[in-house]
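Re: weekly structure request thread

Next one in the queue (539 aa):
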Amino acid sequence: MIRSLLLRITLIILLFSEQFRLSIPNADRIGPAFGIKKGIMNIPLLKLVSIEKSFGGIKALRNVSLDLDRGKVLSIVGENGAGKSTLMKIVAGAIQQDSGEIWMNGEKVFFQSPLDAMKKGISIVFQEPNIFSDLSVLENIFSGNELVNRSGSVDWKKMYDSGVSALRLVGLSEDVLSLSMSELSIGNQQLVLIARGIYKDCSVLILDEPTSILSHNESEKLFEIIAKLKSRGVSILYISHRIPEVLRISDNIIVMRDGQVTGSVSPDQVDETKIVTAMSGRLIDTEVFVPRSYEEKPPILRVKDLCCGAEYQDICFELRPGEILGFYGLVGAGRSEIARAVFGYKKPEKGQVLLENEDITGLRIAEIVRRHIYYVPEDRGAQGLFQGHSVLENMSAPFLDKISDRFGFILKKEERKIVHENIEKYSIKTDSSDALINNLSGGSQQKVLFCRWLLNRPGVLILDEPTRGIDVMTKTEIHKFIMDLAMQEVAIILISSDLKEIIELSDRIIVFRKGKITGSFIHVAFKEREILAAALGLA
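Done, posted below.
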């Protein structure tokens, strides 16, 4: 009798609870506020509700909501400036939302610092490696989170053992623990940062453009790591402009545009074209190559027998006006080192760099620039931009002498006019030329760098990974800039780890491996398999 009565009471309570829940608008959204616990309702590990964020007059995020389930990969795609990185910084505690709520395991949380987020099990690996280059790998993994013994001193043995375990998860040997971070390749630096993010058994790992600086093999290793983390119940927020990899690894995909979530799709329901269209609101024509006649022109740049220790040996090539010469190879192949030698960053041990028969080998960078050879570096943040300065200051720096009066005073009105025209011409997303360069998206920052040199009419332009971490639409725009410059007879060296990009844009491709040229190909005979074989030493 008592058992039957209890059963009836239970059924009435459950029925009443269900009716109550259904009577509430958006009950699934506000469930945690009613104290609904795990086991009664399927609560997401991480839940964002109506997140809003503004910077000055710019609305970066508008009413953004999302759910991340345990052991799942949720990818976020969108154009540069769509609000992806801002959203991730809020989740990681680097900045705070203006309004909206964050829930972890059904508990409302508010992060005032990255440390608050870390205590809740959230780790982030930013697109640009944030490392202490002079410290060891071990010190980088535990920086700010050192393990101590009972006496309060650093427990190096415990840290070493934990470091070994963390590195195993990312496929790195314990031998690297004693190395300084500067001794590692950029790809391995990224893997160390991932190890740092997961060693404390984090529950949410945020990866912001993690493959933008990784080789193909390193990217494959990362995908294996992601699968391993998923099996351990770790949830992953994944931001990438590389749509094929997003389709491959995601359980769900969120599309953002202009600070808003415009769609949520399963990867098995869409293809790359549909996602790109959803990101931009329009169809994108990515075909930009235009055949040109450059072969008959005399070389503007000749490199003869360039050598520098183990970095590169016996490098010879020619570059003609209007030609796009692609440099391809795995990370560490010596491509950037050769480009920097041409630009005067580091004098080679032997060999020559000739500009229209003038020997410019080892000239200072200022002298190289006066000869209209310009270099857009891979690391735009550390090597290209003046951080903490305005868009105007970053763009106009190289041509100030051309807009100064005879007394050396800058003609401010003329400066603003030129900068404003280029902001409009190249669709740079900023509310003002006085906005700090740091507040622009990666794509807009890259456009500012381009404008800086385009205004000075380059003769030779060296582009080192010019579209790294940039969305499909901005990437296509930059590709068109490059092609337009080539049609204006600017000679271009294009360095890229993106083989598709190299093939689509280049007239010729030189392949490097371990500091040596291992292959040379012309546009009409490009074969992806043969180029890869040369890069891997299999040709």
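Residues 18-121+201-280 form a domain with the Rossmann fold fold (CATH 3.40.50.300). The chain has two domains: 18-121+201-280, 321-536.
Next request, please.
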